[in-house]
Design a protein that fits this description.
Number of helices: 10
CATH class of the largest domain: Alpha Beta
CATH topology of the largest domain: Dihydrodipicolinate Reductase, domain 2
Number of domains: 2
Oligomer: single chain
Order of helices and strands: EHEHHEHEHEHEHHEEEEEEEHH
Largest sheet: 8 strands, mixed
CATH architecture of the largest domain: 2-Layer Sandwich
Structural class: alpha/beta
Low-confidence stretches: 328-335
Radius of gyration: 21 Å
Helix content: 25-40%
Mean pLDDT: 93
Strand order of the largest sheet: 7-8-9-6-10-11-12-13
CATH superfamily of the largest domain: Dihydrodipicolinate Reductase, domain 2
Length: 335
């Protein structure tokens, strides 16, 4: 592990997981939070020092920050850190608009420092194995990607489920399609908890050469479902992150088409694909440390972050247009 010094900014629920892994890797150099008591608790738990947010962003002697704060604060804090010559890890979403994301990208380019975004599942050993299998032709030609992320976790009241959950699966779609820009994006949303903050998202993406994707994200549900299905011309792979580790990745022989004017469907027995166990967050923080040290590029770097931000913007536009058309629909009388 390279001898880099990384300061955590944001001592909340997810920040504790980041701190734990940075500490285990021996690269946690301090913690900062606008709530001094939260920072003191983290410092005691992980045997590190408390520093102010201003010191974390601007004080010399630290190589990087891990930014795990509320999404609306990401842009200003990331730019300040980059302007001070520090590499930056930003928990997803990178930003809430494309303009904000581009501002971070411009600051990173000017500083010549890496920015890495917390698209955690891209670092998951099971997804990385699945991606290799797809690239090696294990399912034939890629046809469809179906992502479902149903997570009854903390429901937010500022950014919607689009910005909280969708970045994970959009990053997986980016990897599987080579960051191809979709030709078409359709998206619908439902709000139940906080007015104006969507809780349920359903999206359809169409790419060139017959590749499609569907995406469902929902935090308004009592049951957790984290499943990625990748269908090809010869087989399908299913990554179910709620299953025990030995059962997380399955391959299904699966072929649908036409023969003699009839629709045909061939299905085979499910095959368990073994993948060595690993902790995705540990892999993510190790990759960031290597990027800070100049030993590698971030797996989930600024180009992928901008791609995800663009797709989220198109999804939001589609949601807004759908809501606009609904308000313009003429009311009908029931007879």
């Amino acid at each position: 592990m390279p001898a880099v010094k990384i300061v955590l900014v944001g001592c909340g629920m997810w920040g504790r997981n980041i701190a734990r892994n940075l500490n285990t890797l021996g690269i946690l150099a301090g913690v900062a939070d606008i709530n001094a008591e939260n920072a003191r608790r983290f410092a005691a738990e992980f045997d590190t020092e408390v520093i102010t947010v201003d010191e974390a962003l601007e004080k010399p002697g630290h190589d990087a920050i891990a930014l795990v704060t509320a999404a609306p604060s990401h842009t200003d804090l990331a730019v300040r850190a980059l302007d001070s010559g520090k590499a930056v890890f930003v928990e997803k979403p990178l930003a809430l608009t494309v303009a904000e994301a581009e501002r971070i990208a411009d600051a990173a380019k000017a500083a010549d420092k890496p920015v890495m975004v917390g698209h955690l599942i891209r670092h998951h050993p099971v997804f990385r194995h699945l991606l290799t299998m797809v690239e090696d032709g294990a399912i034939g030609t890629l046809r469809h990607i179906a992502a479902r992320r149903i997570a009854p976790g903390r429901i937010r009241d500022v950014e919607s489920v689009l910005y909280d959950l969708c970045p994970h699966d959009l990053a997986l779609i980016a990897a599987l399609t080579g960051m191809a820009e979709p030709d078409q994006v359709a998206c619908q949303a439902i709000c139940h908890v906080t007015a104006g903050v969507d809780d349920i998202i359903s999206a359809q993406l169409s790419f060139g050469e017959g590749v499609t994707a569907t995406l469902e994200a929902n935090w308004y549900n009592p049951v957790k479902i984290h499943q990625l299905t990748v269908i090809g011309s010869e087989a399908a792979l299913i990554f179910d992150d709620t299953r025990p580790w030995p059962e997380k990745l399955m391959r299904h022989a699966f072929r649908a088409g036409h023969e003699d004017g009839m629709v045909t469907l061939e299905r085979g027995e499910a095959e368990v694909i073994p993948v060595p166990e690993g902790e995705p967050l540990r892999e993510e923080m190790a990759n960031f440390a290597d990027a800070v040290a100049g030993q590698t590029e971030p797996l989930t770097g600024i180009d992928e972050a901008l791609y995800v931000q663009r797709i989220m913007a198109r999804m939001q536009d589609a949601i807004d247009q759908s809501k606009l058309s609904q308000t313009k629909m003429p009311q009908t009388r029931m007879l």
